[in-house]
Amino acid sequence: MSSASSTQASTVLLPLSENHIILGCGAVSVDYLVRVASYPKPDDKIRSTGTKVDGGGNAGTSLTCAACLGLYLRLITKVADDFGGKYILEQLEADGVDTSFIVASHKNIPILMDLERTRKGLDALLNFTSFAVCAANFSQASLPVL
Fold first, then answer.
1. What range(s) does the Carbohydrate kinase PfkB domain occupy (predicted)?
2. pTM score > 0.70 for this model?
3. Residue 37 and residue 68 in one domain
4. Residue 102 sits in a domain of what CATH number?
C-alpha cells in the first residue's frame, strides 16, 4: 500500500433503512414565479412571458431536494387550511415527504412580508401580516403605526 493511499480517508455510504428518517421542521410556502424577457430596471413595469406556481420555503424545498436521493423524510410544520395549504401538502406527498405531522389550520397562520420599498396600499396589506422583513435601505419611518 502506498503512502498516498494510506493517508486518504475511505468513505462508504450505506443505504438508510426505513428506521432512519430525516426530519425537517420549518417554513413551507407557495411561490409564485414569473418569467420575464429581461431583468427590469427599478420602477419599470414589464410584461411577463410566463408564470409558475410551485412549493417553497426552506424546510419544504430542502426535503424535496433530499427526496431525490431516495431518503425517508418527515416534515413538521403548519399550513393554512385553504387552497395554498392543500397544494403544499399534495406537492410534498408527491415528492415522497411524510406529511402526517403537518397541521392544517384556518387560524393563527403567520404571514411574512418582504419589504423593499413603500408602495401604494402597503399599509392595508400590513394589517394582514405577522412579520415584516425590510431591505437595509428601507425607510422604516415610512411604515404606518399599527
1. 31-107
2. no
3. yes
4. 3.40.1190.30
The per-residue pLDDT string of the chain (146 residues; one tens digit each, 9 = 90 and over) reads 444 444 455 566 556 666 778 899 988 988 889 999 998 888 888 899 999 988 889 999 999 999 888 888 999 998 888 888 999 999 999 999 999 999 888 766 667 667 776 777 777 777 777 777 777 776 666 665 55
Are 43 and 94 in a shared domain? yes
Q: Which residues contact 29 (CB under 8 A, 6 or more apart)?
A: 55, 56, 57, 60, 88
Regarding whether 123 and 69 lie in a shared domain, the answer is no
Q: Are residues 129 and 92 in the same domain?
A: no
